[in-house]
TrEMBL record:
GO molecular function, one term: DNA-directed DNA polymerase activity
Protein name (record): Initiator Rep protein WH1 domain-containing protein
Region annotation Disordered: where it falls in the sequence: 282-320
Entries under InterPro entries matching the protein: Initiator_Rep_WH1, WH-like_DNA-bd_sf, WH_DNA-bd_sf
Pfam families: Rep3_C, Rep3_N
GO biological process, one term: DNA replication initiation
Gene3D superfamilies registered for this protein in UniProt: Winged helix-like DNA-binding domain superfamily/Winged helix DNA-binding domain
Residue ranges, compositional bias (Basic and acidic residues): 282-299
Occurrences of domain Initiator Rep protein WH1 (ranges): 73-206
């Protein structure tokens, strides 16, 4: 009896050590194992099955539709998020370290010139964004982040100019992906070509609803729509401003660059707009061909083509970098920006970054028809920080 107790004791100790080992990160695979394996939902299965298709991203409907973001990321950070989810694919719910290269990020429209300095704050934005998902069925609200512990390895930077980026998705995101049985398949080309974060957030939400039977519209209260679009408190407070700078441009851009045609109808109670009904319909094949042709064209002049004013050539303000030696922006900045100490031209990269940030806050597209005039006026009041 004594020997049996000793054997059982040693067995218990071995099992304890095995459990501890399984709980550690395995260096060879980068995976973290747990003695208890939770069943996966269908979304991760679909994402794994479609891993071959680099033109589409499988997004959990809970992320696209039922989740609202606090501290919503910028347009570039949202595009990066979609690339990260697409890269993870069927492993998006796993407690593993995902990796990709800077060269992958540079393939995204508008992000071709990114480097270590410029992508670092994008990961900061994604780390600061908070997902809030109210699961009505389970009567449970989940609050958590999109990513956790992102790292940028720049050991190869001096030799190749490339970087290795790695990250863990946050537990809240992992849980949503793991439990998800509903998904939307997004066309990456459309997402990467959209020109505002409002368009991306609205597009992913509406896309998650398009395959539901007999549903071709959804009505949002104004506060719900503001939350969906990631608007901070105090921005575009009046509905007229909200409609002009966020809703209408997003509706028009999504209709131009996606397989869907959207319409927005305000609903009033008295003289106050209380809600907005957004309707959608699938484009006919000829319309889809026109959309594909637009996506394949340079984005310069896209807004003018959307507005029907494309007969006048449009010069877009650069998406990234300095305006030094880039005309007409270099000349406009030198002619209109106040000189430092009355003599020196301000740093043109800082000036350009500040103008892009200002345009983003005002929801002004960089390829707007009057962007040269806007930049000229803005330069006259520019003051380096």
């Amino acid at each position: 009896m004594g020997r049996l107790s000793a054997v059982l004791g040693r067995l218990s100790a071995v099992l304890g050590r095995l459990s501890a080992v399984l709980g550690r990160k395995v260096a060879l695979t980068g995976a973290v194992f747990s003695p208890i394996i939770a069943p996966m939902g269908k979304t991760t299965e679909v994402a794994a099955d479609r891993a071959y298709d680099q033109t589409k991203t499988v997004l959990p409907a809970e992320v696209a539709r039922g989740v609202y973001m606090q501290n919503a990321p910028s347009l570039r950070a949202l595009k990066l998020m979609h690339l990260m989810i697409g890269t993870a694919g069927g492993r998006m719910a796993d407690e593993v370290q995902h990796t990709m290269r800077l060269s992958d990020i540079r393939k995204i429209d508008g992000m071709a010139h990114h480097d270590r300095t410029s992508i670092t704050p994008l990961f900061g934005e994604l780390s600061a964004a908070t997902l809030i998902h109210d699961d009505k069925e389970k009567m449970r609200v989940s609050i958590g982040g999109i990513i956790d512990d992102a790292q940028i390895d720049y050991r190869e930077e001096s030799a190749t100019g490339d970087l290795v980026v790695s990250w863990f998705f946050g537990r809240a995101f992992q849980r949503m992906a793991r439990d998800s049985n509903h998904w939307t398949i997004l066309d990456r080309q459309t997402v990467f070509h959209l020109g505002s974060k409002y368009s991306v957030l609205l597009f992913q939400h509406i896309s998650s609803l398009t395959n539901l039977q007999h549903i071709t519209s959804k009505t949002f209260t104004v506060p719900e729509l503001r939350a969906l679009l990631g608007l901070v408190e105090g921005k575009h407070k009046r509905f007229a401003e909200l409609n002009r700078w966020a809703i209408k441009p997003a509706i028009e851009e999504i209709s131009q660059l996606s397989r869907l045609t959207l319409t927005a109808t305000p609903n009033k109670i008295g003289r106050t707009v209380a809600s907005v009904t957004i309707s959608w319909e699938e484009k006919e094949q000829t319309q889809k061909q026109s959309t594909k042709a637009e996506l394949d064209r340079p984005k310069v002049g896209r807004k003018a083509r959307r507005d029907g004013t494309a007969e006048t050539p449009v010069t877009a303000f650069p998406d990234f970098g300095s305006v030094k030696d880039t005309q007409p922006w270099d000349r406009i900045a030198r002619d209109n920006a106040p000189r430092i100490d009355g003599r020196h031209v301000p740093d043109l990269r800082v000036l350009a970054d500040t103008f892009r940030k200002w345009c983003g806050e005002k929801s002004i597209p960089l390829d707007m028809r009057n962007i040269e005039k806007t930049f000229t006026t803005w330069c006259k009041s520019y003051s380096p920080g």
